[in-house]
Amino acid sequence: MRWNRVGVVIIFVLSVGGVFVRGPSAFAASLPVPSPVVFVANHGQYAEPVKCVLRGSRGTVFFTPTEVVFSFVREDPETNLPMATPARDGAGIGNDQPLVSRLVFRYRFEGANEHPDIVGDKELPGKINILGGPRKNRTTGIPAYEEIVYRNLYDGMDLRFRFDHALQLSVLLHEDANPGSIRLAYTGIDELDLDASGNLIVSTPFGDFHEPPPTFSRVTANGTVPVKVGFRFADTNTISFSMETHNLGMGVKQ
User: Fold this and answer.
1) Are strands 167-173 and 215-220 parallel, antiparallel or unpaired?
2) 178 and 104, same structural domain?
3) Which residue from 164, 232, 250, 253 lies 20 to 30 Å from 28 (Cα-Cα)?
4) How big is the CA angle at 67 (ends 26 and 83), to the nearest 5 degrees?
5) What is the pLDDT of residues 200-245, one digit of tens each?
């Protein structure tokens, strides 16, 4: 199927419980359609330390040098969640507006390098332009990517994120890098667990998010080879990895 270039105007509601927000803006995107979920570089439309964002119809993922932050919303008129506020995406607040519940959780890269090189990969055709708000805040030519890479986030390890129906992670190990050094510390969730297939279950007030283990590969003298790695629990809300946990019995939370 051939994609045509069109101009698409997207209204962002930038309210994330104090996370990385500058204000409402209009973004004009010249991208192929149908529009994929893409990684967008931060050229000032979000506050530092955000380097890149991934936006979907009901949520946003913020990528910073030290953590990944997930923000989701849903209409829920009968909710009793403490973060529920009357609002409507792209509109003002009125008495007839449904309640919108917002969920924010994150994982922090514990023990990682605090200043990794975060770069976009597989740049998409077209650019995104910020057109709304004061003229001084308008920015044009913002690139979008299929993937982003945290280079040397942990010593000898590059972490690559992409989106294919869900956020997916792959890790490239250089030399003798140990995947057990990676520690992802979750906050804002109910609990973590593993299912019988070794997938991570992140339980939240919005329900369970299921995450397959990242794919790992190692650079060798003979090229890049896959490495069998699975989840393990460093503590109750912190995930790490082990080359032994492909034996699922060793991956069960104690």
Assistant:
1) parallel
2) no
3) 164
4) 65
5) 999 999 999 999 889 999 999 999 999 999 999 999 999 999 985 4
The pLDDT value recorded for residue 165 is 83
- Nearest 10 degrees: Cα torsion 201, 154, 37, 12: 100
- Name the token pair of 235: 């503590």
Q: Are residues 140 and 152 in the same domain?
A: no
Rounded to an integer, what is the distance from CA 192 to the centroid of its chain? 18
- Residue 220: count of CB within 10 angstroms of its CB: 11
Q: How many CA atoms lie within 13 A of 145 on its CB side?
A: 18
Query: pTM here?
Result: 0.77
Question: Do 194 and 253 form a contact (C-beta atoms < 8 A)?
Answer: yes
Residue with tokens 């506020």: 85
DSSP string for 96-146? TPPEEEEEEEEEEEET--SS-EEEEEEEPSS-EEE-SS-GGG-EEEE-EEE
Looking up tokens 């044009």 gives 140
Tokens linked to 52 = 């890149």
> Does residue 227 belong to any structural domain of this protein?
yes
Question: How many domains is the chain built from?
Answer: 2
